[in-house]
Q: What sequence folds into this?
């Protein structure tokens, strides 16, 4: 009975984080962009600092009519938002937030599990594009898949470098093996991992498949109301997962200057929030890349850097072991 209760509590905690944190990131993005770009709209709803903007957005999506195109494959069209969103819930189950087994479910091959499940999310975009009975939506879905294929490899290679350094594929094991002197020589891999993750989430400046100046709104053109909101929620949930993974793999997770035992969860949260702020900052700072520039960045820059990081990790491991 105690084991069942423990599992239930862990799953409930993961579910609460999954429901709350993406909304917090979305609200924060409104405020940060408003300050950086001098926007008045997001600072108006509710009075003080636009505190009700998130509520207003939720009411707006709930009030919009739920439209399914006449020629659409109705079942696939309706299922696509869930397929895009649920992989991030499964990934959160395996990400440790603190010491002493503070994780939904510790997995021996946790790093492969989270990266594989994150890649499933692209099926949601492909399903949405194919089922919409819209050639522009289909093209947007295919461009999303092409972008994922290009950036999945550098992301895997960068994560493999950390696994080599730690000698384990377990996420809690990687954090336990972490030393602060890892940060300088794993920094290149961290930048590659974070950049590739942004591209997989189609976040600016890698948002060509959904950019209004490209192909309308990509695979999501025909979606309205709450189904469209689920795709946006999937994006913010992906930001939470990417930032938490980056902090776990490259920034030591729950390790901090002091109080790692009692405040480990706090250090993980602080690092995740700082990286989420960087994601928002990049959105308002850099212009959008062209499609050819995006592919060139992946194949000619990020992959060579990830391979160089693996080579450096191998050299350092040999030197240390000798």
A:
């Amino acid at each position: 009975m105690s084991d069942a209760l423990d599992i239930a509590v862990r799953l409930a905690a993961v579910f609460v984080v999954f429901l709350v944190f993406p909304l917090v990131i979305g609200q924060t993005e409104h405020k940060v962009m408003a300050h950086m770009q001098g926007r008045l709209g997001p600072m108006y709803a509710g009075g003080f600092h636009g505190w009700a903007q998130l509520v207003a957005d939720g009411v707006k999506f709930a009030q919009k009519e739920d439209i399914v195109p006449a020629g659409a494959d109705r079942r696939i069209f309706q299922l696509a938002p869930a397929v895009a969103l649920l992989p991030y819930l499964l990934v959160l189950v395996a990400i440790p937030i603190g010491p002493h087994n503070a994780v939904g479910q510790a997995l021996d091959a946790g790093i492969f599990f989270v990266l594989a499940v994150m890649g499933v999310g692209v099926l949601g975009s492909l399903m949405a594009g194919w089922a919409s009975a819209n050639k522009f939506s289909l093209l947007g879905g295919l461009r999303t898949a092409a972008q994922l294929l290009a950036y999945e490899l550098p992301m895997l290679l960068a994560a493999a470098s950390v696994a080599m350094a730690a000698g384990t594929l377990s996420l809690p094991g990687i954090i336990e093996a972490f030393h602060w002197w890892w940060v300088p020589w794993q920094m290149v891999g961290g930048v590659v991992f974070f950049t590739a993750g942004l591209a997989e989430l189609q976040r600016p400046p890698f948002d060509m498949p959904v950019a209004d100046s490209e192909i309308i709104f990509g695979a999501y053109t025909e979606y309205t109301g709450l189904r469209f909101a689920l795709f946006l929620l999937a994006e913010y949930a992906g930001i939470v997962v990417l930032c938490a993974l980056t902090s776990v793999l490259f920034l030591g997770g729950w390790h901090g200057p002091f109080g790692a035992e009692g405040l480990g969860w706090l250090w993980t949260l602080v690092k995740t929030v700082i990286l989420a702020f960087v994601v928002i900052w990049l959105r308002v700072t850099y212009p959008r890349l062209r499609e050819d520039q995006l592919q060139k960045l992946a194949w000619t820059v990020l992959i060579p850097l990830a391979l160089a990081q693996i080579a450096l990790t191998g050299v350092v491991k040999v030197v240390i072991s000798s």
Summary: The CA atoms of residues 51 and 85 lie 26 Å apart. The longest helix spans residues 2-37.
